[in-house]
Structures are given as C-alpha cells and as structure tokens.
TrEMBL record, chains A, B:
InterPro entries: HTH_LacI (IPR000843), LacI/GalR-like_sensor (IPR046335), Lambda_DNA-bd_dom_sf (IPR010982), Peripla_BP_I (IPR028082). One of its GO terms (molecular function) is transcription cis-regulatory region binding. It comes from Neogemmobacter tilapiae. PROSITE patterns: HTH_LACI_2. Gene3D superfamilies: 3.40.50.2300, lambda repressor-like DNA-binding domains (1.10.260.40). This is LacI family transcriptional regulator. Residues 12-66 form the HTH lacI-type domain. It holds the Pfam family LacI. The keyword Transcription applies. The keyword S-adenosyl-L-methionine does not apply.
Amino acid sequence: MATPESPKGTRITIRHVAADSGVSVAAVSKVLRNAYGVSEALRMNVQASIEKLGYRPSVAARGMRGQTYTVGILLVNIDNPFLPQVIDGIHDKLAPSNYKSMLGIGRARLKLESEMVLSMIDNRMDGLILVAPMMPEKLLARFARQIPMVVIGHHEPTAADFDTINSDDRRGAMLAVQALYDRGYRDIVMFSQEYMKDQQHQVATLREQGFRQAMQDLGIGPGIILRAPEDEGADVEAFRAFLARPDRPRAVFVWSDLHALILLDQAHKAGLRVPEDLAIVGYDNSPVAGMSMVGLSSVEQHGRQLGGMATEALLSRIEGRKTPKHLYVTPEVIARSSV
Amino acid sequence: MATPESPKGTRITIRHVAADSGVSVAAVSKVLRNAYGVSEALRMNVQASIEKLGYRPSVAARGMRGQTYTVGILLVNIDNPFLPQVIDGIHDKLAPSNYKSMLGIGRARLKLESEMVLSMIDNRMDGLILVAPMMPEKLLARFARQIPMVVIGHHEPTAADFDTINSDDRRGAMLAVQALYDRGYRDIVMFSQEYMKDQQHQVATLREQGFRQAMQDLGIGPGIILRAPEDEGADVEAFRAFLARPDRPRAVFVWSDLHALILLDQAHKAGLRVPEDLAIVGYDNSPVAGMSMVGLSSVEQHGRQLGGMATEALLSRIEGRKTPKHLYVTPEVIARSSV
DNA sequence: ACGGAAATGTAGAATGGTCTACGTAGAACG
DNA sequence: CGTTCTACGTAGACCATTCTACATTTCCGT
C-alpha cells in the first residue's frame, strides 16, 4: 500500500512497467484504461509490475491525448454551510469510480470564478461541477461547450449544453411561509439577496417567487421583500435598522442561514424574544442552526443528495450523453424554537 | 476580457500564436515564461497575438516538461471553521503571482489524504500546502522529497525536507488557562482530542502540554485531561456524562471550537448557566463563537496570517530554497460571555 | 573598422502517456 | 485443409509545451 521510493530520483514511467513485465508500452496503457483487447494473463502480469514498481500514471501526460480522470468542483466560497454536504455527496458517488476531484474556490467573485473554470479546462479535467456559481447563463453555456458540465444551485431550466440539479427553491420558500402561517403568523416579510443584474435564475429569485406565491395563496398580502447589502458591516446595520422599526412585522423568512443567523444575533442583542417578538425561518439548515441556544428554523435542501445526483449526471455526460437533464429535489422545513 | 470562441472547435495552441505573430514556437514559450532573451518588441507582438486569439497555455502540456504554475492545497476536511481564514490568507498572497491553486479534501482519513497528495503529485503541481494533515512525519517526509511542501497546523520542528507554519499551540493553551485563572477559576480540566497513535506532533498534544504547564505554573494542580470519542453521537454522550458528574469542575478548556460548541450546547440543554455553573474556553475563534447567544471564549490562531506565511515559504521553496523553516504565530484569547 | 561579448531568436529533442492502424496467432467453419 | 474471423498485442504517430543547444544579430570599446 505504501508508495515505494522511486529508485533513482527519476520518476517511474509506463516504459519502466512495460520493460519489467516484458510487454509493449501500448499494452500497459490498455491495462490502465481497462481498454478492450487485453487477456487476463497480460492484465495480471502488468498489474504485478505496476504494484512492484509503485507506478502511478502522470495525469499531465494523460491529459495531452486522453482523459485525466479528474473532475473539477467549483465552489462559490468556502464558508457557506450548504457546501460540505454537497461535497460529501459528490465524493461518495465518486469514490467507487476511478475519478478524482479537485476543488476551486470562486470567492463569490465573477472574475475569479471564471478564471478558476478556465484553469480547470486548462488542466484538461474531464468534467466540472459548479456549485452555486454567480456567472450568467451565457458564460456557463460557453464553458459547457468546452467541457462536460453540471451546475448545482443555479436555475437554468432551458440550458441545452449542461445539466442543472437544484433544490426546488420556490417550494422551499412556500413551505417556510406555510410553517409560519401554521403557527399563527400573518405579517411576514422576506429578506432576500441584494439585487444584482442577471439574477433571474439565481436561487434567491426563485425563493422570492415562492414567497410571494405563498403569501397570495394564503391571502395574507402581496409579500414584502427587503434586501440587505452584502458587505460585512452594512448587513448588520440594515438588520438593526429593521429591528428598530416601530411597524416591524412579527415574522421573517430569510433567504439563507448565513444572513438569518446575523438577524437572529441582532434580535438577541436588541433584547427581543424569539419567537414571541420575532419569528425567523432561514434556509440551508446549517449545523449551527441546530444548536439549542440558536434553534433557528430552516429549510433543509438535502445537499448530499444534490451532490450525488450531480455526480451521476456528470459521469453519464462524460460518457457521451448530450441531452440535458434538469432535476429537482424537494426541500423540507425543519422547525425549531425560532417559530 | 471575455474568452473568444475557439474558431473551429479545436483548441488554440502555442503554434497558432507563433504563426499569427510570425515568430517561432520557442519564442512564444519564452514570452509566456518571462524567460531571458526576448526583446520588448517581440514580447508586445506575441502578447497581442495571444490576446487576439484568446490563447491559454495547456497546464497538462506544461506539466510534461516545466512548471504548471499550480499549487495544491490539502485540507483535513471541509467543515473546520479554522480553514476559511487560512485559505483566504493563501489566496491573497497567491493572487499577485501567476500561480493558481487547487484544493483537495482529505476527509480526515489517512488513506484518502495520501491519495490526494499523490494525485497532486501526479498532476505535476509545483508545490503543496497541507493544512492540518493527519499523516505521520515519515509519510510527510517521503512526499516532501518529491515536491516542495509546506505544512500548516502540524508540528514537526525537526523536519528537514519541508517547512512548518504553526500557531504556538502550547502558548495558546497557556493563555486560555490564564484567562480562566484571572477570572477566579481554579478547578479547570481540558477536553482534548481522542488519543491516537503517532500524535506526538499533533496540535492537540501541544495544547495539552501547554495546559499542564500553565496549571503547574499557577500551582492549581497537575491538570486533568479528558478525551471524548470523535464519532458523531458518542462525543455528545461523553459530554453529557461529564456535565452530569457531581464533582464536575467549574471550568473547561476545549481543544477545538467544534467540540467546545457541542459541550456548550449540551450545557445549555442541561439547564446549566454559563459561566456561573460552567466556564468554557475553546480554540479557533470560529465565527459562530462570536454570536451573542453563543458567546464562546476562544483562542484566535490568526489563520489568515498562517496561510500567508505558508504561501511565502512555499514560493521561496519552489524558487529553490532547501533549508527548512519552522515558524510560529502567537495566538490570543478572545474573551466572551462564556468566562 | 574589428573582434569579442551580450542579446535575441530558432530548430528540434524530450516529456509520458493515448490512440490508430495493423500484424499475427488461434479458433471456427465449410 | 484452406479461409475467415476474432482476440490479442505492437509500432509509431501524436498531443502542447519546455528546454537545450546553437545560430544570428547587435552592441561596444579600442
């Protein structure tokens, strides 16, 4: 199992293996790729040499003609609590295959994000999974034409060149409103993502639609949507101002746990009782939400499942599938002490 | 700025650039690498063609002979709150250089961890930063002989083939004890990592040493160290049992916030008042700790700085430095309502 | 104006695999 | 027993770059 020392400081290549097992280089290559036309005897023979010499194929060399057996995963950023589950889901599905994964972090910046994708293409990766990317459909489509691609957490239901796997965000928002309604709340507002161009297919937008829909269906108003700025500090200020309003509604649906937690924190600091003075429902069901002193109600997205489905889609796409898939997972409200 | 469509579905290579600008392939290569022996005129000419054609060098092909300008970052796992800061620190220092980064996740499993490192070597990356790796010194050293390497969050002060960048964990533990002492606590225990072989240089071990040292220096006993099992569920049970003990000490220093938060959660569930019935200090100063309803005191490791220093070390090592560096950053206690 | 050094550019091998085309041996078939 | 087919294996081109020589030009000081 351990990696033997390379004998002479020089790396072991496919040629060494071929020499050791007394076959051609091409034959070894075939064994490595499980390609057609190798007898069991040859395979065993070559495998033995590979183990003996501790040979590992160079991904770089492979990439020049064939596959690299590496898939790239692009994350919006590293601290979103939604991500670990998704990644676990991906890794679990990837483990039995002989594919590896490499991650890139977009840091929620468009330029960095596309820079990372390009870099993954430069690395000749076999396919990409983008998690909650910020880039517009046009850019996604352009990249997708160069490499098999699956997108999680970004709605693009008519995209022809890549697959999308999403939680049903409209549904999730509706469930959140329903949960508040069931507990007697009627004056409900939503805190959503800061407005940005090109966001018609962002998850936040879908959640806004679900929110409005539910409010209307239940006959409790048009559904007022507020937006806090994204910058550190400004968001806190916005929440504080909201909490200080004399006409403050008694219930809030926040588009992400990250922000819901800040709101909850501020409410706590302002001496408000939760849920008596203010009820809150977040989105993501992050681990922190479950702590007893936090008790934030939240919408569970089943990230692990999303990751698994995305991986299956990607692998089949690498195998050659061209027709796009656009799949959804139904979310679920986890009610805690904040409602 | 936008990437132009590749003209014929076939990728643009250095040859196209050479043809377009009317120079040799080697000349273009020189421009790309900022190599010696290119006139300003040539450089401008070639650069223009590169922009015009939207050429991007293939990392895979580069890896076959030269550098890939990619550094690999290996993380223990994805949900440790200590990591985002470190990664930000790395990225900030990497941004001005023309290096890119790719991440791998070890999922706290030794086999997976070394598998990832090997994979990064197979990818011909130029260097590696390992964050809190689990693997023993011997394995680290073996890898370090194959690729420039810097390790964060793993003490190996005598390692000859790689650098280590660490928070001064002994010091951090001592500061934590001191903080509790200053507030009048005398019966202090430590919750540390589950015992594992080969851990003499793990951060937890150093923190244990610091804890014992401080307890002795202050003359308040030998310093009792408890260990909770790592598995989900069992740890909760262990904490609950601890809290139920009739002779339970009034103050606890926990080796990581991840566990401190679980303890705090259980204390809260058990109806204990913090800090009146139980004082807690954690380690990592994770964002959650700062929330007002959590208020966990914790030791700040200055992860961003660690990441930055590691990156500088790695780049100089890639440039050819061989003599090892072993650097430390002094931590700091952030006192909150839990003490 | 001359000769050596420095600056600039080029040709072609090298890198470590994969893939296409093809040769060969044995099996099946008539 | 000859023919065809199939399974197995091989030779050699190929991928996109870097790097090592080397050739050519320019620059200077004398």
